[in-house]
Amino acid sequence: MEMSGVGPLTAALRMQNVVQSSSRWAQGQQYRPWTLRSLKLQPLSPVPSDIEISRAQTPKPVDQLAQEIGLLQEETEAYGRTKAKVRLSLLDRLREQPDGKYVLVAGITPTPLGEGKSTVVIGLVQALSAHLKLNSFACLRQPSQGPTFGVKGQRGQISTHISMLEISMLINESFNLHLTGDIHAITAANNLVAAAIDARMLHEATQKDKVTVMFSRNPGWKIHGFRAYSILIPGVFLGMFLDFCNLKCDVMYELVFYIYIFGVGFFRLVVVDTNDRFLRKITVGQASTEKGHVRETQFDIAVASEIMAILALADGLGDMKTRLGRMVVGSSRSGQPVTAEDLGVSGALAVLMKDAIKPTLMQTLEGSPVFVHAGPFANIAHGNSSVLADKLALKLVGEDGFVVTEAGFGADIGMEKFFNIKCRASGLRPNVVVLVATVRALKMHGGGPNVSAGSPLPREYIDENLSLVVKGCSSNLRKQIQIAHLFGVPVVVALNVFKTDTQAEIDLVCQMAKESGASDAVPCHHWARGGRGSVELAQAVKQAGSQPSHFQFLYSQETPIVEKIRMIAQKVYGADDIELSPEAQAKIDYYNQQGYGKLPICMAKTHLSLSHLPEKKGAPTGFTLPIRDIRASIGAGFIYPLVGTMSTMPGLPTRPCFYDIDLDPVTEEITGLF
Amino acid sequence: MEMSGVGPLTAALRMQNVVQSSSRWAQGQQYRPWTLRSLKLQPLSPVPSDIEISRAQTPKPVDQLAQEIGLLQEETEAYGRTKAKVRLSLLDRLREQPDGKYVLVAGITPTPLGEGKSTVVIGLVQALSAHLKLNSFACLRQPSQGPTFGVKGQRGQISTHISMLEISMLINESFNLHLTGDIHAITAANNLVAAAIDARMLHEATQKDKVTVMFSRNPGWKIHGFRAYSILIPGVFLGMFLDFCNLKCDVMYELVFYIYIFGVGFFRLVVVDTNDRFLRKITVGQASTEKGHVRETQFDIAVASEIMAILALADGLGDMKTRLGRMVVGSSRSGQPVTAEDLGVSGALAVLMKDAIKPTLMQTLEGSPVFVHAGPFANIAHGNSSVLADKLALKLVGEDGFVVTEAGFGADIGMEKFFNIKCRASGLRPNVVVLVATVRALKMHGGGPNVSAGSPLPREYIDENLSLVVKGCSSNLRKQIQIAHLFGVPVVVALNVFKTDTQAEIDLVCQMAKESGASDAVPCHHWARGGRGSVELAQAVKQAGSQPSHFQFLYSQETPIVEKIRMIAQKVYGADDIELSPEAQAKIDYYNQQGYGKLPICMAKTHLSLSHLPEKKGAPTGFTLPIRDIRASIGAGFIYPLVGTMSTMPGLPTRPCFYDIDLDPVTEEITGLF
């Protein structure tokens, strides 16, 4: 350090400043212990409505929460007063910090009303942090707007997902349905790809005199070091240009001209985050300006899109960009896959998605931290919150802390995909599975009458009925515990207690769960009592988390596609075998030929049964699983079989719940959302 | 005040506290003088690229900016570090505060490259605030993502809109294309209506056994005081129910059953913020689940949607909600209009839009405040930023301050709609019009060769050519000045100087502008010198603003629809007459019959000519304006004639500029957006 012309005192002061600031810097880099301030709940009897509970509580400012859990100021970006995006640089700062315990909350096969899995996540985290004083973090998915406006209670025909009830537990400030806009970013990115394909197909077919020369950014295609797809050349010069580039003309030709998009089941073209059933099958390009380039296509709901899956599975900005570029959007005329990178659109997609990749920090009603990030449905997508939210949370809670993440719907779909897809992508290994059950769902599996949204519950579900409970425990509950054990992870059964449940029913479930191999089984009363109602569950999870876990995948990546599907069908669902449609078989052949055979499998299957038939409750056997169609999400990194009649665009019911949603323009209070 | 059992000192202290806090409260209610800190620009020669200029500048934290311009802490909601939404409660607090001066920036008919109107807004505000030390505020529209990914330079085939260049002048932190998500909220709201219609039509046509009874919330329809559309009743009971409600069955029938949507040109069903030309004409409902309810429809781009217009024209949350409910989405089988309110969806729409209604505060590179809010295109929508942003800004700048707002494209469309639609809705009256011209556009109007995006500029535009300039000034410039004078507002011509312009050309434009009636005409050098380059313009605007303005509308609301269209065509565009297609005439008859005849007119016309023919430059005469079709946006409050071949869904060009857009995943730096 040079200090010419500076007196000794000044020099000493400067030196001191330098020392102080480097020490501050070093401290900044270190892990910071938590100073979490819990918010007291005043549980009331009778339990008030969700919205009343939520409004009665004042959340901490999000910057205070961020400070309490050891985030640096520059690591957060506030969105209003109760939400903040957290920057991924945190992962770098806490590189050396050991991860906390990793807890997955899954469930038995639910009724159409949902069994409160997300509320178990919230209750457990509140119990761990506010009552056992252990650092803990909840990781949830962002709710889709589609189901929000659909079926009351059920919230959508295909997903109970994270409901408004859970959200009401997170914040009470006027709720922003758009959250921090991540699903909108996904929609915009997806539809940019669709527009790029449409425009390109049209211009290539109609303007042979003006050709956009397109090379992939893959090293093999990069020519003379420049991004050549910025070149628009007259068609007549194409041959000369190709000679100049020293490329075989036929190879260029198929990249340059006319993308043949259909028939190989890749990228779903256009998405909206709305349940619009009329967009399930459409014909586009009918305006005269499109010169007869009409084609059939369909919309998917945004949360079932490949870009949503990419957001949930990426482990950084670079990885997300690579996956976006790798998405196969169709095939060329000679049958070669064409990617988003080939279309020249991957940079723009990364720009559209660069903020969506940061998880959103919120809090529970008791002031515990929550990440809300990504929201794939578990039946028509892989159904788990993001790898990045889990990774950030695992670093933040520290070695003795707990991260509780949720897999959608029953363990047969959400949990199976959590293990085989998400854990494979992230490299993370879970310590405990919490399996959520309700007396209501167990009675349904035991042979109780049909449960449906909007209709009153039959008496069997209100009065004590031990025989239905026994049959439900010995069928669906036992089977779902066995599925978790296939992966070598200890299971704690959490019985989400409703006020109609009798003590005998509760005791019976806990006893039968343990007999079926659960490490423990406890009743949870978080709905009535908040975190305090889940202390027993928290203790059971802490205990199970201290046991060794022997995690293993169900199948190796090397197993052929058909075999992987069969293993899931037989070992997880209990099917005798699978049956492939000729269309599905042809696509599998094509995928194998293209080298996609090593990808894991993401089944699109009903969540209402272990089988493909929603009405088959309990643990059905003796059925053959029909694979109607199959898609490949190469960017997300999975093969996507469609089982039976699964649709990737939900619809609204006869009486959608948006009828009840209203806003008071003076108080800005929202009614009917909960 | 009761103070029993409290000592005198304590009582005195308490009293003092009460006095202090009420005085603090009273101060909080008052107007707060500004303490704006301007940021110094270091203008460089040669002028660096926009992105380099932008990155070299560190913006103030948005909460600091908010404090400097007299906002209370509780009046802002931060979105990241450089953006904040401003709450509408401000209007209430500053109710008594007189408005500042209201300046509209419009332009002559542009070339396809755009003439830098938004940069004139920014330069003017920087000059007023950083150099003349007058409180001033810019109000801009939010850019649509569609054109952002379209044509470089032009940014979209139909709109230069606010370009990325302007945005680069606003913030230099990594730019978020989604801003605060307002356009996404509009898309979501619009598509919810579409889904609601689709679902309702299907269920009513196929489930006569289950009928959702629907009453409007209009007082006339409210029955027995309850929101009856929450009722789902079996079809067989419908008659009994109607008797019970004491309603004529046929009236109910048409509200209860089957909405006939088409043929009267109301609400555009589905929108995306993407240029996807294949969605211009589509057929939906082709899946077997829709049981043959196939129909033709089309997508519009979100910024041309009625909900975007409502956002821009609403003057509060209540007004927005009323307008959303009033949107006519189709007609019943007996020909009665059906509204969003009738569909039961208006409350949900208000919930989706409740944050979008708050303008977004940002800053220019020199630290002056900017509101970015709403973004209707000026050719296929009304083309002006929001009434609310202008109103908030007029209160904030105070009596001696200036609010500079922008109308899209040429004065013939953006400015005409500003006066006849926006000022009519807001009640605000402008003090000055700034008319932006460039030597390039004037030469084009004077007979210069074709200017197109992506092609090099012909020599005429690079070398001095006084004769082309003269012809441009005496045609298009003179006509646009005359159009502003039709409304009785003084005009200052701002010549946006390019480096190829010669002094003789600049002097000639200024002289001819004054001869054509402009109060003043000055060259602007903001592109090279920032606010300092616009000081002369700022002084001219200040001077013109002190003159009396005699504002008048072009037409009265009472004038019949056809007459209003004719007045715009003849007086503004210079047409001989208009020509209505039979379809347009039939719709006008229907609108008159429904009582919509008093609404103002929003012409959808090319921005590239005063006429309907883009190739006709200068000030064309001797043409008949063809009205191909006509729509009615009852919620937004205007009748919407489509002139010639205008499309409300743009497309991407052969070589879209997304090819150049990229993101560095390590530095998070974006390239190619500017």
TrEMBL record, chains A, B:
The chain crosses the membrane at residues 226-245, 251-271. It comes from the Eukaryota. GO terms for molecular function: ATP binding; formate-tetrahydrofolate ligase activity. The keyword Chaperone does not apply. Pathway: One-carbon metabolism; tetrahydrofolate interconversion. Its EC number is 6.3.4.3. SUPFAM superfamilies: P-loop containing nucleoside triphosphate hydrolases. Pfam families: FTHFS. GO terms for biological process: tetrahydrofolate interconversion. Signal peptide: none annotated. InterPro entries: Formate_THF_ligase (IPR000559), Formate_THF_ligase_CS (IPR020628), P-loop_NTPase (IPR027417). This is formate--tetrahydrofolate ligase. It comes from Oncorhynchus kisutch. The gene is MTHFD1L.
